[in-house]
Amino acid sequence: MRVSRLYAPTLREVPAEAEVVSHQLMLRAGFMRKAAGGIYSYLPLALRVLKKIEAIVREEMDQAGAQELLMPIVQPAEMWQESGRWDVYGAEMFRLNDRHNRNFCLGPTHEEMVTTLIRADIRSYRQLPLNVYQIQNKFRDERRPRFGLMRGREFIMKDAYSFDRDEVALDKSYQAMYDAYTRIFTRCGLNFRPVEADSGAIGGSGSHEFMVIADSGEAEIVFCTECEYAANVEKAELAAISSVDEPMQELKSVDTPNCKTIADVCNYLNLSIEKSVKAVAYTSEKGLILCFVRGDHEVNEIKVINTCNVINLEMASEEELTKAGTVGGYMGPVGMDPEKVMIVVDSSVMNMHNFCCGANKSDSHYLNVNPGRDFTPTFVADIRLIQETDACPHCGGKISKARGIEVGQVFKLFTKYSEALKATYLDENGKEKPMVMGCYGVGVSRTMAAAIEQNNDADGIIWPAAIAPYQVLVVPVNVKDELSSQMAEEVYSNLLKAGIEAAIDDRKERPGVKFKDADLIGYPVRIVIGPKTLTEKQIEIKIRKTGEVMSLPLNDDYVKAIKELLLKL
RNA sequence: CGGGGCGUGGCUCAGUUUGGUAGAGCACCUCGCUUGGGACGAGGGGGUCGCAGGUUCAAAUCCUGCCGCUCCGACCA
């Protein structure tokens, strides 16, 4: 590629709309341009990176026994109605009508499509297992598109779906995908970690997310410093904390004027925060949900959703609290009717004795509250968020927190869709059974952004060589200097002949401009050709990642040397 | 959806308080000069000031409504 012809307009200044570094750099380096909120055009450089990532994904998917196909983006409403998700999916689904006013959507995912496809063609256990995948644009009308490609409304995704005869076979398919994902992200040169993930209503140990470790990541993960355990904080399971046993004391009401937070109350009553219980109120389609955790703990909303088996969970309004006979800041389980309001109590709270909590009226708390005697929960469950002071749920070791960008997820669907959409097969006894499914996603465009998030410096992007748009840039320092120009062309052409993806900056620009753009775009290797080294019959090689500069003699060996160098980047 | 901020040439922004000729830097075009880390000089092109109403002799500026972008909270590759 000749940079003089390359459509990659670089910007000197950071566009005001970009907040995170990957977004800023992709705009500045001429990789993409915005069409609307969360919707972008990929310019040639970005497309090359995407194709590199896709090629790696394809190789590993094919290797793992999956077959590529391509399903429609425009999907009829009927199959979504059949699975029940047409109404559940809500505002996030891009919907449209055809000229006959029939309902369609732009595919946010393809479980319905693939299941209705497969059910028509697969009838026998002999045709299983089957794993199909596609790479395609997905559409989700996000509440809040942000961070450039990290959360777009249109994005590129690889989605795979496995069909097996039973759960044992699903485990094998799942493991094959898990291993393929590990290879994919390793080959992309990313620092990532698979973590246990919430699998929602489907339950079981059925999901892992692949997280690229980055401070700008939207997800929070915990990992053990002593064993292999790693999980999304949403998922991390916690055993009930036991408390020191002590005799029950008499329930007592105390005045706590203007003590609306747990810190206020403990301060005012001179009480240890571990002797207090705080409440968080939510509303859902099943009504009000009051959650109780120890004062120094936090509620994990995902766990609440799973425990109560609800879909929508929102913070309750003061009005709703009044109606339920309580008041914000002074909520407590004592005297609440578990028939009218869901009372969800964290299992650690059930081990506490003589604790303090709200009395459901202003400026008033109870002391010496005891589970069993003073209130009846609707549910007792692990509903709290893991904290860094907690022990590893697996080995009891010390845990640490980090942030991550979710670039992939593997998920056991079991028979959720095959039952809803009647995708069945006949086993060897002629018995009809639902296929056991799994689904596996890679955010391709997000992976590109994540790679930048993790690999950049003040000068620009530092592409891992495996996914760089071009691997080598040849820079003639001054195109008017005939010898430099000629030698640069020769080196460029030799690199191309050797199968190296090279570009040459043949623009009539000053060297500073070319160097700045080279760093910004992030070519892994830069070769500078100018009088300074040419007089010694050498070319200068600079490694973008390390800043290391070396000279190579201008003979037949330099192409080989560069090839070897690239393998190490 | 709720809450904040912002919409002025391609990009970054000034001008809005106090209404009166639309500006700067970068980018772009021409010429000259320059060439190892975003040079310099001269000349030039490009803006319905987000949109629609209103107030006024006069609106980028004041008023009303709408739209878009962005950040903070509930969702997810």
Please, what is the average pLDDT?
93
Q: Approximately how much helix is present in the residues?
A: 25-40%
Query: What is the CATH domain class of the largest domain?
Result: Alpha Beta
Main sheet summary = 9 strands, mixed
Q: What is the approximate shape? A: globular
What is the domain total for the residues?
3
CATH architecture of the largest domain: 2-Layer Sandwich
Q: How far apart, in Å, are the first and last alpha carbons?
A: 21 Å
Number of helices: 16
**Can you identify the CATH superfamily of the largest domain?**
Bira Bifunctional Protein, Domain 2
The percentage of residues in β strands lies in 25-35%
Any idea of the CATH topology of the largest domain?
Answer: BirA Bifunctional Protein, domain 2
Structural category is alpha+beta
Radius of gyration: 29 Å
Number of β-strand runs: 31
Unreliable stretches (pLDDT < 50, length at least 5) are: none
List the topology elements.
Blueprint: H1 21-28, E1 32-36, E2 39-42, H2 44-63, E3 67-68, E4 74-76, H3 77-83, H4 85-88, E5 95-97, E6 103-106, H5 111-121, E7 130-139, E8 154-164, H6 167-187, E9 192-196, E10 207-213, E11 219-224, E12 230-232, E13 252-255, H7 262-269, E14 277-284, E15 287-294, H8 301-308, E16 314-315, H9 318-323, E17 342-346, H10 347-350, E18 355-358, E19 364-369, E20 379-381, E21 399-414, H11 416-420, E22 424-426, E23 432-434, E24 436-443, H12 444-454, E25 456-457, E26 460-461, E27 472-476, H13 482-497, E28 502-504, H14 511-521, E29 525-529, H15 531-534, E30 538-543, E31 549-553, H16 558-567
Parallel strand pairs: 3-7, 15-17, 17-20, 27-28, 27-29
Antiparallel strand pairs: 1-2, 4-6, 5-6, 7-8, 8-24, 9-10, 10-21, 11-12, 11-21, 13-19, 14-15, 14-16, 18-19, 21-24, 22-23, 25-26, 29-30, 30-31
The structure holds one RNA strand of 77 nucleotides.
